[in-house]
Amino acid sequence: MEEKENITTKENITKEERQDKEKTKEGENSNDLQETQSELTASSSESLPNKPLITLENLLKAGAHFGHKKDRWNPKMLPYIFCERNGIHIINLDITLEKWAEAEKFIKAQAAAGETFLFVGTKLQAREIIEQEAKRCGAFWVNTRWLGGTLSNLATVRRSVDKMEKLEQLLEKAQSEDGEVKLQKKEVLRLTRQLEKLSYTLEGIRGMKRPPAVVFIVDIKREDIAVREARKLRIPIVALVDTNADPELVDYPIPTNDDSKKTIALFVQAVSNAVLEGKKEFEKARIEKQEEVDVVSDGKSKRRKKREEIIVKGKRREEKKKEEKIEEEKLVQETKTASAEEIAEEQRDEKQRESEEVKEEEKSAEQREGTIVG
Predict the structure, then answer these.
(1) How far apart are alpha carbons 119 and 126 in whole angstroms?
(2) Is 266:240 a contact under the CB 8 Å cutoff?
(3) What is the pTM of this model?
């Protein structure tokens, strides 16, 4: 019995030691991430606004030139390898800078055209910085687990997103003071677990209603499903490619160390900056276009006003002409009536004269007859 008790106590001690070790490792990883992020932010704040973030000095400090062991290399990466030291391939950073310049130009052009971006990095070194920088530049992100069909079968993923939003609304109604929906504690716990499970994988693509225009991937060996889906849909891929990967699978490969936290943070921040610069150009072009539209609309409104004024003047002229015609017709009628009355009066006068002359002739004839008789 004492031996069994000793064994159980030893097992408990070992479990506790393992848990403590895991906690310390997680703490160290989080501290390293915070340190790398603080260093990058400090360097970016100290640097001039026109000074690029990806420089030879920054790449060397971040350890971007370290590749994998020569036993794990991909022969297609040979053009990007500078040499081999202690069984490890060293990446040619001059080519890295050239490839980054091409990728940066492409990213800015796509952002300036108003296109959407998706950041993908599910390894522990990249999770936090991927989410942070994607939020900063307004891109979508996947940093926990890549769901099969995220790009190729987006309609099914959208159903899961709708389910997640409905669960959020239901829990809000259940937790509200009004109490529109009444749920038991067990039901609330079950629904919150479902919601956490869905949001764990779908939070970053909640608003993605159509496939993105560009996909940025940190490790193409780890995210091979994402690479296949993007290639199937012919979506351009910008990716960090290490010496163990195939650069031909990517449209814009950036040869660099994809395992170093500092290197990942450096490139993710640089991609985010490029997206933001492109979006600034897009907003600037949109404002200029809006101003042109406003100017054109103002010109059209002025033309419309002139046309309306001309139409009103024409209508007034027509009304005046009609009034003048009516007055002329009235005058003509008046003159006609006046002339008719004058003719009638003249005819009357002539009849009276004729009747008077007839009477005078009769009188004169009677007088003549009287004289003859006498």
Answers:
(1) 10
(2) no
(3) 0.67
CA dihedral 266, 268, 273, 277 (to 10 degrees): 140
Q: Reduce the secondary structure of the chain to three states and give it as a string.
A: CHHHHHHHHHHHHHHHHHHHHHHHHHHHHHHHHHHHHHHHHHHHHHCCCCCCCCCHHHHHHHCCCEEEEHHHCCHHHHHHEEEEECCEEEECHHHHHHHHHHHHHHHHHHHHCCCCEEEECCCHHHHHHHHHHHHHHCCEEECCCCCCCCCCCHHHHHHHHHHHHHHHHHHHHHHCCCCCCCCCHHHHHHHHHHHHHHHHHHHHHCCCCCCCCEEEECCCCCCHHHHHHHHHCCCCEEEEECCCCCHHHCCEEEECCCCCHHHHHHHHHHHHHHHHHHHHHHHHHHHHHHHHHHHHHHHHHHHHHHHHHHHHHHHHHHHHHHHHHHHHHHHHHHHHHHHHHHHHHHHHHHHHHHHHHHHHHHHHHHHHHHHHHC
Q: Note the pLDDT of residue 188.
A: 82
Task: State the pairing for strand pair 66-69/88-91.
Answer: antiparallel
Span 219-223, mean pLDDT?
94
Tokens of 19: 């848990």
Distance CA 22, CA 276 (A): 38
CA-wise closest residue to 43 among 55, 31, 30: 55
State pLDDT tens for residues 25-65: 444 444 444 454 445 444 444 333 456 788 999 999 999 99
Whether the predicted pLDDT of 11 surpasses 50: no
CATH of domain 55-288: 3.40.50.10490
